[in-house]
């Protein structure tokens, strides 16, 4: 029984333990299920939040894209509207211009009609006057015949005899001119001396062109030369006193100035800056200062070289410096220093041929244009300035001083060396290609030639052709007869000889033409 009791108790304990285990397991399962549900809810909540955030970000991006496209559209629309407004303004300007041109054409047409009407009235008036004049001429001719008692044939004979006398005077003048030409043959020795001097001294060139350009390695260098906001080019122009032209010409920068020395200083300075590569205001001022000092030394060296080449002996340093300045001076495109050396050689050769002092003659020729180195700094012509400077700097020779002041016939010639300098100066300037006549002087000479011919009565137009070597004159056929046209031609030629200076000869041609026009209807 006791065993049974213990067995039942054990079974009861086992049953109770089994029940307790069951309840514990159910409790644990319930707790796990609850925690899993909580985690699921948290995940769902987090997913919903993420979805809302993604949705909001998508909406913001969509709005940004929309605003951006709308701004682009508005910008393009504004640009299109501006272009349309510009086109409308251009069209309005063109319309205004066309209207103005149309008004101008109408005005010109009215003025043309008025002028045509006036011309017709004037032509009728002139025709009436011509008829009246012809009748008056006939009346006066009859009166002259009555007064003189001469017939028309006798009057013509008298006029022809008078014309023969005038022609005889002209023939006498031509004979005298030919006699003078024959007389010039007696001056063969002088011409031989000049020809010998010219042949012995054959200069390589006498004309010089002064166009200063600076080559640059690349077009990028142009921007460095200009500098930020143009500070480099302004500093360079202020330091050198020149104008620097930077244009679209590839690989070239142009330096422009009226003073050749300044232009040369600027050209050398700019070349140094380009080679150095350091281009800024401080460096520019340093290089320009160095170049100016170098230019002063070069000018003195040019003067010394000219003195040695001409072999004229000792010359004062100031005069040597002035001679060096002539290296950068031109006269009608001819380099003045080269011209002075050439004149010195020619003077020396002619003096040697004449048995004079060749060294003194060369000195006169070398210093004759020294005043041109300072003519922009002192008042007066270069002969007077040159003589004053030479006298100031120790030139004591009267022949040299007189040759400087008198080689342009400004004073009475008292020394033979002055004549030699004037002749050598003319030879050097007249050498083919030595000088170029300025356009203003050439045009002025043609205008004077035409104005002289148009000053004669009965001349309608005058045209200078063949570079001024021929004058073509158009005569009014209603005013001048053939005989009067011939007389006018001779008078024009005489007036040209008396009033104008010109090289060679000028051919005068008077054209008188009558035209008869009729229409067959």
Task: Please give the structural blueprint.
Blueprint: H1 2-148, H2 152-184, H3 188-200, E1 212-215, H4 220-226, H5 231-240, E2 243-245, E3 252-256, H6 260-276, H7 281-310, H8 317-325, E4 330-331, E5 334-335, H9 336-354, H10 358-367, H11 382-392, H12 398-406, H13 416-430, H14 439-454, E6 459-465, E7 470-475, H15 482-499, E8 507-512
Parallel strand pairs: 7-8
Antiparallel strand pairs: 1-3, 2-3, 4-5, 6-7
What does this 3D model show about the protein?
The protein is mostly helical. Among the domains are: about 210-430, Hypothetical protein af1432 (Orthogonal Bundle); about 440-510, K homology (KH) domain (GMP Synthetase, Chain A, domain 3). It has 15 helices and eight strands. The chain has helices at about 1-150, 150-185, 190-200, 220-225, 230-240, 260-275, 280-310, 315-325, 335-355, 360-365, 380-390, 400-405, 415-430, 440-455, 480-500; strands spanning about 210-215, 245, 250-255, 330, 335, 460-465, 470-475, 505-510. Strands 1-3-2 form a three-stranded antiparallel beta sheet, covered by helices on one side. β7, α15 (about 480-500) and β8 form a beta-alpha-beta unit. α6 crosses α7 and α9 packs across α13. The longest helix has about 150 residues, at about 1-150. About 20% of the residues are buried.
């Amino acid at each position: 029984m006791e065993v049974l009791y213990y067995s039942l108790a054990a079974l009861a304990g086992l049953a109770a333990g089994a029940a307790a285990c069951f309840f514990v397991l159910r409790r644990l399962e319930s707790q796990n299920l609850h925690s899993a549900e909580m985690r699921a809810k948290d995940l769902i909540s987090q997913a919903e939040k993420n979805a809302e955030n993604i949705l909001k970000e998508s909406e913001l991006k969509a709005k940004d894209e929309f605003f951006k496209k709308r701004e682009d559209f508005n910008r393009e629309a504004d640009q299109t509207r501006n272009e349309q407004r510009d086109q409308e303004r251009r069209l309005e300007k063109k319309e205004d211009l066309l209207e103005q041109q149309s008004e101008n054409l109408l005005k010109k047409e009215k003025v043309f009609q008025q002028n045509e009407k006036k011309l017709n009235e004037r032509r009728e008036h002139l025709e009436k006057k011509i008829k009246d004049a012809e009748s008056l001429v006939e009346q006066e001719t009859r009166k002259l015949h009555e007064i003189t008692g001469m017939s028309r044939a006798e009057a013509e004979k008298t006029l022809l005899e008078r014309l023969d006398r005038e022609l005889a005077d002209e023939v006498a003048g031509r004979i005298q001119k030919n006699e003078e030409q024959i007389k010039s043959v007696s001056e063969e020795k002088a011409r031989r001396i000049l020809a010998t001097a010219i042949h012995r001294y054959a200069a390589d060139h006498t004309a010089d062109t002064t166009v200063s350009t600076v080559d640059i390695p690349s077009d990028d260098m142009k921007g460095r030369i200009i500098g930020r906001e143009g500070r480099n080019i302004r500093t360079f122009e202020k330091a050198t006193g020149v104008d620097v032209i930077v244009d679209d010409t590839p690989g070239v920068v142009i330096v422009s100035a009226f003073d050749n020395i300044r232009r040369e200083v600027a050209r050398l300075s700019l070349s140094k800056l380009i080679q150095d590569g350091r281009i800024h205001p401080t460096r520019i001022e340093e290089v320009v200062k160095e170049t100016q000092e170098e230019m002063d030394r070069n000018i003195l060296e040019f003067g010394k070289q000219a003195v040695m080449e001409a072999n004229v002996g000792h010359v004062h340093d100031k005069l040597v410096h002035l001679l060096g300045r002539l290296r950068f001076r031109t006269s009608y495109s001819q380099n003045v220093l080269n011209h002075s050396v050439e004149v010195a050689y020619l003077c020396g050769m002619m003096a040697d041929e004449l048995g004079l002092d060749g060294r003194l003659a060369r000195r006169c020729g070398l210093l004759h244009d020294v005043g041109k180195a300072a003519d922009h700094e002192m008042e007066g012509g270069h002969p007077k300035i040159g003589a004053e400077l030479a006298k100031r700097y120790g030139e004591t020779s009267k022949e040299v001083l007189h040759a400087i002041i008198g080689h342009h016939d400004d004073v009475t010639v008292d020394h033979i060396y002055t004549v030699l300098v004037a002749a050598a100066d003319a030879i050097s300037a007249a050498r083919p290609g030595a000088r170029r006549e300025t356009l203003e002087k050439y045009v002025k000479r043609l205008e004077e030639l035409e104005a002289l011919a148009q000053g004669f009565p009965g001349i309608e137009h005058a045209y200078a052709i063949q570079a001024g070597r021929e004058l073509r004159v158009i005569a009014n056929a209603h005013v001048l007869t053939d005989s009067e046209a011939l007389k006018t031609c001779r008078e024009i030629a005489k007036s040209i000889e008396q009033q104008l200076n010109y090289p060679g000869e000028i051919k005068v041609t008077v054209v008188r033409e009558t035209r008869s026009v009729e229409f067959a209807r």
